[in-house]
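Hi team, as promised in this morning's meeting, here are the two structures we talked about. I've kept the exact order from the run log so nobody has to guess. The first one is mostly here for context; it's the second one we should focus on when we meet again. Sequence first, then the predicted structure tokens.
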Amino acid sequence: MSVLKGYRVLDCSIAMAGPFAAQRLGDLGADVIKVEPVAGEWQRFRAAGGATGNRINVSFLSLNRNKRSLAVDLKAAEGKQVLMELVKTADVFIQNYRPGVAKRLGVDYETLSKINPRLIYVSISGYGETGPYVDRPGQDLLLQGMSGAMLSAGRAGEPPTPAGQYLADAVTAYTAFEGTLAALLHRERTGEGQLVQVNMLDAIVAIQMQELSVFTVGKKPQVRSAEPHAHSYIRAPYGVFATADGYIVMAFANLKKLGELIGEPSFADMVDEEKDSWTYRDEIFARTRERLVARKSQEWIELFLKNDIWAGPVYGYEDVVKDPQIAHNGTFVEYDHPTEGHVKMPGFPIKFSKTPSSISRGAPQTGEHTSAILQEAGFAPEKISSLISAGVVKQD
């Protein structure tokens, strides 16, 4: 039995943060019902990275496994009533509408909690439900820029480099996932449902606990160096270095030992490593960079690891997929999708000894499970047929 088997989640979210959080709940065994318009969520039709699919594009496929699809027109009175019937049977309701939209649709926490007082209502926003930025678009790159994180790495005077992932979205998804589990635990103890609010700005700021505390408590300014140092609050050498055939990363090296290994005698003169590695940060980085181009990446990595210097490779996705530790961990899962064929994608980051995660279904077609879901909610077959004929709901 999966750990969340028996819990029902209504996923009324779109794009990434909400669907990703709901997918994690589905991976743990929850019955996740994706509530989407009869035409389908817009993410179905926007190819990520140019990757499309047969009937489901890769972006939607990656964020909506272990869900059933209910396609319903919530702007129609009958459609809204369909949702209200489902709310009675739900444990969790997730939405990431822009602030105020849920209220206008009549699916806000105050309304739904009267129907089901045990409901965990998860509301995800860009900047918060109120405040001066409430109407701003909550898009990943915009939140990365506002978070301060970009100016902790790279060269002074050069444009900051965003993360290579949808970082704000992903962190927000996991924050919502965490909040949902905590609220469910509270309900198990007390019987009470509650409102859980998560916003992208707070989520991406919170993961910088150390960096921002160094600034607010330690009073250390956030100053980038002239060299492309990987973090403004970590001593040199720390970053990415070119080699004869690629790149490696290095962190927290003992300067004396590093100097001996790369043939840089000046490092031996830095007797107070903690102080000198800050004072001469640019010089240390530049001299390390100049020396490392002499050998290939694997040669340096083997030499450094043998001498307790922390170093490692810089992978591309092809390397990640082929890595032996990745294979050993079972990091990726593979399954056959009815329309998209054999697919391989990241799997389950949490291992449970007694309640393992699994894939019971791939991402659904729009409204694929509408009839079954409505039957479970108590709708008579003739009523379901009537709703389908009227276009209030869709059955794929």
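And here is the second protein, the one for discussion:
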Amino acid sequence: MVQTIIVILLFAAALFYVGRLVYKSFTAKKSCGSNCKCGVDFSNIKP
């Protein structure tokens, strides 16, 4: 009985971990990650 509970808990933890990885891969990131300079502050640079 105890072994079954341990296996079920490990399986649930693995499902949670994989679900979290999938969720993080589909959520939007704060920065675009390309070379567009969208996160750079140009206010201190004189034209």
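Starting points for discussion:
Residues 2-26 form the longest helix (25 residues).
Residues 1-25 form one domain.
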